[in-house]
Amino acid sequence: MRILIVENLHQTSLGQVGIALEEAGAEQIWCRPWNAELLPAKSDGFDGMVVLGGEQSAIDDHIHPYLPGLARLMKRFGDDDKAVLGICLGSQLLARAHGGTNILGTARQFGWHRVARTEAALEDPVLSVTGAEFPIFQWHSDTFTLPEGAIHLATNPDVANQCFRVGRASYGMQFHFEANRQVVEDWSIGFAETIERMMPGWLADYERHASTDGVIADAAGLAIARAWVGQIRSA
User: Fold this and answer.
1) What is the C-alpha to C-alpha distance for residues 180 and 169, in angstroms, rounded to an integer?
2) Three-class SS of residue 199?
3) Secondary structure element (H or E) that encloses residue 91, with its range
4) How is the chain split into domains, by residue range?
5) CA nearest 70: which of 23, 115, 34, 110?
6) Mapped to the 3 state alphabet, what secondary structure does 15-66 carry?
7) Fold of 2-229
8) What is the reported pTM?
9) Helix, strand or coil for residue 130?
10) What is the pLDDT of residues 86-123, one digit of tens each?
11) How many CA atoms lie less than 13 Å away from 171 in the CB half-sphere?
12) Fewer beta carbons within 10 angstroms: which end of the chain, N or C?
């Protein structure tokens, strides 16, 4: 299987999603439109796509003019019945692609936070693999309204729309389920000044959170990743 990976920020890790794709023997085709690489016009030649996070908002078209085209491509993949995964910014773009409204600067979360499955998630082939509630990593300040017809799959008290599905296998996940403890540790080193400004004292308490919530989040994230990869239909 061939999977298009769209990077929106330099050196973004696939984490648990990468592990699941490697287990499935998937070929990863990376595209970096933030660095002027052209997105494909169609889904032809791919079996699915993953759109990763980034520091931009989903409607920063004036700074990142590729964003409208990326949103359209996500919808095109879904319309072609190919699996789509949007993580953080990717989830916000998926919401935009299907008519949701992006809401900026009102949904700040950072660190491991607990999310809960909705009742609809019990019948979902991906979110049903998790516990009823689980900690997972978050790093965002934006949110979105659910597109018409979307299935709401996960929520938490501060940011209601944590995960949704459109169609058979287009998933938007606001939380960073791909971010295992190694990824979070790398972020803690690479973005230490940013994190300390945003959440003073968090880095000093990192080890405690990583050894408790981080362990559970790693297991939940890998289960979700494997379940999503299971929705990919190879040509």
Assistant:
1) 23
2) coil
3) helix 89-97
4) 2-229
5) 34
6) HHHHHHHHHCCCEEEEECHHHCCCCCCCCCCCCEEEECCCCCCCCCCCCCCC
7) Rossmann fold (3.40.50)
8) 0.97
9) coil
10) 999 999 999 999 999 999 999 999 999 999 999 999 99
11) 30
12) C
